[in-house]
Design brief:
- This protein is of the alpha/beta class.
- It has one domain: TIM Barrel, CATH 3.20.20.70.
- It contains 11 helices and 8 strands.
- An 8-stranded parallel beta barrel has the order 1-2-3-4-5-6-7-8, surrounded by 6 helices.
- Strand 2, helix 2 and strand 3 form a beta-alpha-beta unit.
- Helix 1 runs parallel beside helix 2, helix 5 crosses helix 7 and helix 7 runs parallel beside helix 8.
- It is globular and about 45 Å long.
- The relative contact order is 0.15.
- The structure holds phosphoenolpyruvate.
Length: 261
């Protein structure tokens, strides 16, 4: 069994109101404390709300084991970058995580690998932990270009001049599975996760490959998390839609644990 601590990350996208944050975190924390596996000791939970919700989220999660993440960050500490979020300020408010390269950023806002690399370097300069999303579109999968695309997206890690092993998580999120209700099969996920782990080994080290958590994302629900988590290279999930309700997010966590005893 892997020694990597499971990670369950909630990507709220542009959903929920600021007033939803405190009750959600209080409810989730109460339920997490009742679980057999112990949050912080056996697994980690990160909530990534919209930027406007980050301060109250950090406040509400004090004295809990729930951690807070942003959904993106800028490539510089400060400056004339309208609409961007400073990684330095994320650190200042004790937001420890940031999601980078989400497919909605890549496809709706045309963020390319070079731009994501700038954000990655800036995030790591501030000691933030990064969830780097990679994944192919449906035409790319049909054209059997999945690993080629994922490998290209991973290249920015080589250009970042060294990866801080404890601050990198990779999320494999096939674009065709995000928000569609159609998840990758456990075998499809495992195949790509294994590819990513091998890539980390050949481009960095055994230790980078063994320590880096690789999450699956794309229509994860309570009724598919056990099976997906049964695969050896699946170390947790990045969850969109099903993270918006405490009951379904918790159901994913509970069922995932069933697969590992
Ligand atoms: C996501 O946005 O990262 C995601 C995986 O969404 P969903 O779970 O809704 O497919």
């Amino acid at each position: 069994m892997s020694k990597r601590k499971f990670l369950f990350a909630a990507n709220w996208k542009m959903n929920k109101r600021v007033s939803d944050v405190a009750p959600f975190i209080a409810d989730l924390n109460r339920e997490l404390e009742l679980l057999k596996g112990k949050v912080a000791q056996d697994f980690e939970v990160v909530i990534a709300p919209p930027a406007t919700h980050l301060l109250p989220a950090v406040d509400s999660s004090k004295n809990t084991a729930i951690q807070i993440g942003a959904q993106n960050c800028g490539h510089a500490k400060s400056g004339a970058f309208t609409g961007e979020i400073s990684p330095q300020v994320l650190k200042e408010i004790h937001c420890e995580w940031v999601i980078l390269g989400h497919s909605e950023r890549r496809h709706l806002y045309l963020e390319d690998d070079a731009r994501i690399l700038g954000r990655l370097k800036a995030a790591w300069d501030e000691q933030l932990k990064v969830i780097l999303c990679v994944g192919e579109t449906l035409p790319e999968r049909k054209g059997q270009r999945t690993t080629q695309v994922v490998e290209r997206q991973l290249q920015i890690l080589r250009e970042a001049s060294g990866i801080p092993e404890d601050r990198l998580v990779v999320a494999y999120e096939p674009v065709w599975a995000i928000g569609t209700g159609e998840n990758a099969t456990p075998d499809q996920a495992q195949e790509v996760h294994q590819f990513i782990r091998n890539w980390l080994k050949s481009n960095f080290s055994n230790s980078a490959s063994e320590k880096t958590r690789i999450l699956y994302g794309g229509s994860v629900k309570p009724d598919n998390s056990q099976e997906l988590m049964g695969k050896p290279d699946v170390d947790g999930f990045l969850v969109g839609g099903a993270s918006l309700e405490v009951s379904s997010f918790l159901g994913i966590i509970k069922n995932a644990f069933k697969s590992r005893g």
